[in-house]
Amino acid sequence: MMDFARWLHMLGVTVWVGGMFFAYMALRPVAATVLPPPLRLPLWRGTFARFFPWVWVSIVLILSTGLHMTMRLGGSHAPPYVLAMAGIGVVMMLIFAHIFFSPYRRLGRYVDAQDWPAAGAALAQIRRLVGLNLILGLVTVTVATAGRGVIV
């Protein structure tokens, strides 16, 4: 059962962190270079509309399997690297919830109104927060893979 939970956990992490990496490191620089705001901002709105439901599924998988595996490892007495992953993961989830319920919603309203400067400001806030979450996600992956030897 632990192996299946671990697989589901890693599947969620891969979708979420991999998606952020692709969006931040590949799609963002190209879209910013080749598309004017009236094309770029609806592209981002549509991209988020397709990606964010997958992030919510990933969060449910990561949270449920992470709690299950942590309890199997002793709950609050689990190894420190497990507790570090959990703490960083919760922060990432809170950041994503903020992105979803605040700047992403504003982005949609501003794109509908064709208010490109306001939509650009909302997208810039999303970009900064996704960048932060990407860093936290990569740190968490590092803690997960090297944790036993790094965090004692």
Q: Overall 3D geometry?
A: elongated
Q: Which regions contain 5 or more consecutive residues with pLDDT less than 50?
A: none
In percent, how much strand structure appears in the residues?
Answer: under 5%
Number of strands: 0
What does the radius of gyration come to? 17 Å
Give the integer mean of the pLDDT values.
Answer: 95
What is the subunit organization of this protein? single chain
Main sheet makeup: none
**Helix proportion range:** over 70%
Terminal-residue CA separation: 26 Å
Helix-strand pattern: HHHHH
Secondary structural class: mainly alpha
What is the overall number of helices?
5
In short:
This protein is an all-alpha fold. The protein has 5 helices and no strands. The relative contact order is 0.15.
Can you walk through the features of this model?
This protein has 152 residues and is mostly helical. It is built from five helices and no strands. 22% of the residues are buried. The mean pLDDT is 95.
Secondary structure blueprint with pairings:
Blueprint: H1 2-34, H2 37-72, H3 80-101, H4 103-112, H5 116-150
Helix pairs in contact: 1-2, 1-5, 2-3, 2-4, 2-5, 3-5, 4-5
Q: Which structural traits does this protein have?
A:
single chain, 152 residues, mainly alpha, 5 helices
